[in-house]
Amino acid sequence: MKADFEMDSKLTPWFESLHRFPGRDPDLVAAGREQYLLAARAMAAGQIPLRPVQVRPMAFRNGQRVTLAVLLTVLMVSFLGGGAALAAAQFSLPGETLYGLKQWSETVRMVLTRDTEEAWQLSLAYTERRAGEIEDLAQRSESTPIAVLEALKSEIDRTMQLVLDLQKPLQNQALEQTRQRLELHKRILEQVAAEGPDDNLEAVLVLLQTRLMWLESGIEMPETLRQRLQTSQPGGQAPSPANTLPTASATPALSTQLPPTATDQGDPGSTGIGSPQHTQSYPSPTVMQSTSGAPRSTQAQPTPGHPGQNAPKPTTQDGSSGGTPR
Amino acid sequence: MAASETQLLAGAQCFDLDALAEIYDRYQAGLYFYALRQLGDTALAEECVAETFLRLLKALRAGQGPQDYLQAYLYRIAHNWICDQVRRQPPPPLELDEQLISTDNLDLHRAAEQRQLQEQMRAALARLSPDQRQVVMLRFLDGWSLVEVAAALGKPVGAVKSLQHRALLALKRLLVNNAKGNVNES
Question: Which value does ipTM take for this structure?
Answer without folding.
Answer: 0.76
